């Protein structure tokens, strides 16, 4: 099984990166192949809705890091989205990647599983609702199975995160795929 992990934070050692690492550890222990794409480290132009990908056979107008990601995206069995909450939803870095799925909408309707891992400073689920709704919408639209979520509340810093059970939950989710 191939697992594609797409992260959305510019913090290489931040809270969501720690969740991603534990998730990957669990998945690798089960023998799954893991590919990681750190969106904040890559050049991914936001979709400009030119429709060239839908109206012609020329594909996306932008030749950027999505060319590296697309083959992995199409062949992965599991897509893991890992993001900090920024203003009540996922980060712009990961959203830019998701919007570029548009070029492969038809091919992506293909029986994948998806998981969502979030970290945030607030201690209420309500602050994650935007991200959760986006995730559920993507799963419904692309007919992917929601294979689980870890919503890391009250995790402004790595020190906060380490006092919680979320790292273990991410690890267990990685093993449970
Ligand atoms: C631009 C920005 C917006 C944020 N918005 C929220 C928010 O709406 N709710 C929240 O609980 N935390 C918010 N945070 C805090 C981060 O979600 C939190 O610090 C998280 O642990 C950062 O994850 P990272 O270390 O992986 O980047 C925000 C942080 C930044 C930089």
Describe this structure in words.
- The mean pLDDT is 97.
- The protein is of the alpha/beta class.
- The protein has a 5-stranded parallel beta sheet with strand order 2-1-3-4-5, sandwiched between helices.
- The termini are close together.
- The chain is 40% helix and 19% strand.
- It has helices spanning 15-29, 52-55, 66-75, 92-99, 105-108, 129-142, 158-162, 166-175; strands at 2-7, 33-38, 78-84, 113-119, 145-152.
- It has a single domain, classed as Rossmann fold (3-Layer(aba) Sandwich).
- The structure holds flavin mononucleotide.
- Residues 9, 11, 14-17, 84-88, 119-122, 127, 155-156 line the site of flavin mononucleotide.
List the defining traits of the structure above.
binds flavin mononucleotide; single chain; Rossmann fold; 177 residues; 5 strands
